[in-house]
Design goal:
321 residues, alpha/beta, Rossmann fold, 6-stranded parallel sheet, two-stranded parallel ribbon, 11 helices, globular
């Protein structure tokens, strides 16, 4: 299958493309920063040109404006990328009658529910990031019959900027980090999310899915474990409540939310977040200098670790608390 991936240089895209190629697909990684044949998702003509050039059989739309605070400061840009850009992609995929996978977010919920969210719960975003991603979901559902909407949460991985990387950067210049302790979620590794997207692509079970690693933690616990597993010492992590910290520009879908699977109750969950996290921080040189896939190959002489890394991830759902 010929698969076009938007956001190919993002933290998810860079894990997704190798998995698609391993599965036997021919992949075109689209990005607006490409030296040759760039594709800007907010430019309809640019997308049409790339579709005509590559003739994809399916699209995975991972490109998005994910800086939550910047979305709040610049809502027009948030909607231009996350809503209009997705409308462009969904329109063209729909007209071509090909499958489209749209990567969405837990921010489409408000966190008021005290039990895990399912795919059937009402959405209620609290900020422009969540609202713009929800608008994208609606465009996908309305314009493309063969669609998957995959909502995920607290994404982290070897590539790109994410919460663990940010904590490590701050720990290099500070002796104390203050981190929110009353927001709970399910950190999700990009490699596992990518694996589920590849599995979805091989199916025809179109619809909306909640996809995340199992387990839950607070941002405070996430930061603690980051520094612990990275071997960082001499930095104190102090928990604070959302109300006592500096008010962020964007309201989060917290302080209480996670999700449980409704589409996949017969299947087991991902391996736990702690297992993932430990494997993640065993990457050589720690500071994300070696791709995780290369590390899998390098660790093939260590059966237990190799088994954990090679365990096939399947569908799950995320907490938003």
């Amino acid at each position: 299958m010929r698969v076009l991936v938007t956001g190919a240089n993002g933290q998810l895209g860079r894990d997704l493309i190798p998995l698609l190629e391993t599965a036997g697909h021919t992949v075109y990684g689209a990005t607006r920063r490409a030296e040759e044949n760039p594709m800007e998702i907010t430019d309809f003509a640019s997308i049409v040109a790339q579709f005509e050039r590559f003739q994809p059989d399916a699209v995975i739309h991972a490109a998005a404006h994910t800086n939550v605070d910047d979305c709040e400061r610049n809502p027009d840009n948030a909607y231009r990328v996350n809503a209009l850009g997705t409308w462009n992609i969904a329109t063209i995929a729909g007209e071509a009658n090909i499958p489209l996978i749209y990567v969405s977010t837990d921010f489409v919920f408000d966190g008021a529910k005290r039990t895990p969210y399912t795919e059937y719960d009402a959405t209620n975003p609290l900020n422009h990031y969540g609202a713009s991603k929800l608008a994208g979901e609606k465009h996908v559902a309305q314009l493309c019959r063969k669609h998957f909407i995959a909502r995920t949460s607290w994404l982290f991985g070897v590539h790109g900027m994410n919460f663990p990387r940010r904590m490590l950067e701050l720990a290099q210049t500070r002796k104390e980090l203050t981190v929110i302790a009353d927001q709970i979620g399910s950190p999700t590794h990009t490699l596992d999310l990518a694996g589920v997207l590849v599995s979805l692509l091989a199916s025809q079970h179109y619809g909306t899915y909640h996809v995340s690693n199992s387990g839950e933690c607070s941002w405070y616990q996430f930061a603690q474990k980051t520094l612990e597993l990275a071997g960082v010492q001499g930095v104190n992590v102090r928990p604070i409540r959302t109300a006592t910290g500096s008010p962020p520009p964007a309201a989060p879908p917290t302080p209480s939310s996670t999700t449980s699977p409704s589409n996949c109750k017969a299947t087991p969950c991902f391996r736990t977040g702690r297992q993932h996290f430990r494997i993640y921080w065993l990457v050589p040189h720690r500071f994300f200098t070696t791709p995780l896939l290369e590390f899998v190959i390098a660790c093939s002489n260590y059966p237990l670790l190799y088994f954990c890394l090679k365990t096939k991830p399947i569908l799950s759902s995320f907490w938003l608390r």
